Structure formats: structure tokens, C-alpha cells
Amino acid sequence: MYVVINKFKDLKDNHLYEKDAIYPYKKKKVDQERLDELMGSDNKLNKSLIKEASIDELTDSQLIEYATIEGIDLRSYILDVVNTTELEKLKKKAKKLKIEFNDDITLEELTSLIVEKESSEE
User: Are residues 66 and 6 part of one domain?
Assistant: First the structure.
């Protein structure tokens, strides 16, 4: 992936790239010759316009922009991670309470079992 280091208007796709934007702005194949032209100074502005960047180097806003370009639903992804983490915590708690359950139990089902078990022990 590439990050814009100098603002420029791409004459090939008629798009204005602001500094720190992700290049390209939409999901498309860009040939190596074009990338070399934009990374080098052999272009109309005579300076490097983009640089290669790893995902670890991106800022939060660049990550969001990249996810949008790639069509990644961040809301669903984050909720999946949170739910998986919460389910793992509840599974540990259920084991301590000696509650039997299947590995494919849902978060809601396990929560219900734990509440039921804790209520019966009071």
C-alpha cells in the first residue's frame, strides 16, 4: 500500500490526492511503472509523490481509509472481536463455576447459564 507524501492531482484518474491519503483512492491495480513514476521524481512535479508503507505504519485515519477502500466493514469486524473476547472470558468464568457447555455456545446462551448458576447459589 502507498501513502501520499506530497499533494498532487493524478492526471491518469483525475483525482486530487491530499498529503497522507492512501494511494490509490479506490481498489484498482496500478502497474509498477506508474508506482515507480509516482515514487520517484520522473513526473511533472519532479518530486516523489507517494511512498510505500506497511499497515503498521498507518495512522488510525489512514487505516479507516484503507479499510473503506478494501470494502472492510469495520463495525462488524470490531463487534466480532469484542464478542469473541467476551465469550472467551465467560467460558473461563463458566468453567470455574463448573458449568457444562458446548464449544459452539453463543454469548447470550452462556450469559444466561452463568446468571442462572449464580442466582441458584445465592
Answer: yes
Q: Residue 4: count other Cβ atoms within 10 Å of its Cβ.
A: 20
And the C-alpha cell for 106? 453463543
pLDDT-derived band of residue 121, with 50, 70 and 90 as boundaries?
A: confident
Q: How many domains does the chain have?
A: 2
d(CA 67, CA 60): 11
- The burial class, CB within 10 Å (0-12 / 13-18 / 19+), for 12 is exposed
49: closest CA among 59, 41, 61?
41
> What's the distance, CA 90 to chain centroid?
26
Q: What is the pTM assigned to this prediction?
A: 0.67
Q: Which domain holds residue 96?
A: 75-120
Q: How many CB atoms lie within 10 A of CB 110?
A: 20
Rounded CA gap, 3 and 7, in Å? 11
What's the Cα-to-Cα distance from 55 to each of 47, 59, 86, rounded to whole Å?
Answer: 24, 9, 26
Same domain, 99 and 86: yes
